[in-house]
């Protein structure tokens, strides 16, 4: 099938992301990657749990002294909402409504950027208020590696969406780029899945003690 | 061609049906989003209420697991057909993840 073929909303296939062989392969390959990502984050979570509050002296701040629930709550809501907006984008992709898909992706990017801004503020705050840095303690190293790795995933996800939008903005939807948008949105949802565990295991359980 | 999905004999009816189905699915997504917000609120409230960690930890972990299931099966469409291999990939990852965390919090560091 010609991947550049022009469609209308009536001829657009029901699962455009899996209509071509390339799309099917992308879909499977991407889920294999997500299985690997699960293991990657598990090793970072395990390290964090083992090294939490392991500091060299009593002058170092511990998790319970630093974490602030309102900030984490705002960040959680931003990322959770951005997950819904990217679902809306895929809803319009399947309905062959390119304009609306683009609008929802831009909203998703905006929410992701806001999340990133709060995260940068949070790290800055810890470094300057509590002298909690990457090298200050085993706790610091484990914390910044885990949360920073997630933040890096957010950066990659945002870059991915932005590049896709720039590259395809005048092209319209076809069977060549539909799988690309679909896979990028799967990645974005996975970032939210990881965040659910970060706010639960790191922040909420950290506040309980 | 073989890779093209078959459409019903009457494309007009099929189109309407598909639109309706997509809309219903979108409504499901909004419902699961509301549930996820609700679970997040309960988790934060459980922590702020200041109960003992023996009670709070299991509640938090169960809420997180439920939220992730909603995210995977609805937002990431794992409830749709043709996700068998996908589930194999993901659950293989989850199994290794579980063993890794279990090892680190029990055997390695205690």
UniProtKB/TrEMBL annotation, chain A:
It is found in: Cell membrane. The chain crosses the membrane at residues 28-51, 71-91, 103-121, 141-166, 186-206. One of its GO terms (cellular component) is plasma membrane. GO terms for molecular function: cytochrome-c oxidase activity. Keywords: Cell membrane, Membrane, Transmembrane, Transmembrane helix. It is a multi-pass membrane protein. InterPro entries: Cyt_c/ubiquinol_Oxase_su3, Cyt_c_oxidase-like_su3, Cyt_c_oxidase_su3-like_sf, Cyt_c_oxidase_su3_a-hlx, Ubiquinol_oxase_su3_dom. Belongs to the cytochrome c oxidase subunit 3 family. This is Cytochrome (Ubi)quinol oxidase subunit III. It comes from Jeotgalibacillus proteolyticus.
UniProtKB/TrEMBL annotation, chain B:
The chain crosses the membrane at residues 30-49, 55-76, 88-109. Pfam families: COX4_pro. Its main location: membrane. InterPro entries: Cyt_c_oxidase_su4_bacillaceae, Cyt_c_oxidase_su4_prok. It is a multi-pass membrane protein. It is found in: Cell membrane. Keywords: Cell membrane, Membrane, Transmembrane, Transmembrane helix. GO terms for cellular component: plasma membrane. The keyword Glycosyltransferase does not apply. This is Cytochrome c oxidase subunit IVB. It comes from Jeotgalibacillus proteolyticus. The gene is ctaF.
């Amino acid at each position: 099938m010609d991947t550049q073929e022009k469609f209308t909303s009536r001829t657009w296939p029901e699962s455009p992301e899996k209509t071509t062989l390339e799309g099917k392969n992308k879909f499977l390959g991407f889920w294999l990657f997500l299985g690997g990502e699960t293991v990657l984050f598990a090793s970072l979570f395990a390290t964090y749990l083992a090294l939490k509050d392991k500091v060299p002296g009593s002058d170092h701040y511990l998790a319970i002294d630093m974490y602030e629930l309102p900030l984490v709550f705002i960040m959680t809501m931003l990322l959770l909402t951005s997950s819904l907006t990217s679902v809306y984008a895929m809803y319009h992709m399947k309905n062959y409504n390119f304009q609306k898909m683009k609008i929802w992706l831009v909203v998703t990017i905006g929410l992701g950027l806001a999340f990133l801004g709060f995260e940068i503020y949070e790290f800055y705050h810890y470094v300057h208020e509590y002298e909690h840095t990457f090298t200050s303690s085993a706790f610091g190293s484990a914390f910044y590696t885990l949360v920073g790795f997630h933040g890096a995933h957010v950066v990659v996800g945002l870059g991915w969406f932005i590049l896709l939008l720039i590259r395809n903005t005048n092209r319209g939807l076809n069977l060549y780029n539909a799988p690309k948008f679909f896979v990028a949105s799967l990645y974005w949802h996975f970032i939210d899945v990881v965040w659910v565990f970060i706010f639960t295991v790191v922040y909420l359980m950290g506040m309980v003690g | 061609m073989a890779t093209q999905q078959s459409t019903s004999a009457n494309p007009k009816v099929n189109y309407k049906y598909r639109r309706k189905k997509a809309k219903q699915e979108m409504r499901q997504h909004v419902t699961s989003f509301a549930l996820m917000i609700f679970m997040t609120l309960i988790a934060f409230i459980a922590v702020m209420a200041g109960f003992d960690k023996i009670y709070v930890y299991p509640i938090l972990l169960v809420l997180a697991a439920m939220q992730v299931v909603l995210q995977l099966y609805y937002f990431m469409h794992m409830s749709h057909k043709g996700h068998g291999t996908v589930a194999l990939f993901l659950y293989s990852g989850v199994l290794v993840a579980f063993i890794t965390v279990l090892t680190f919090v029990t055997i390695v560091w205690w």
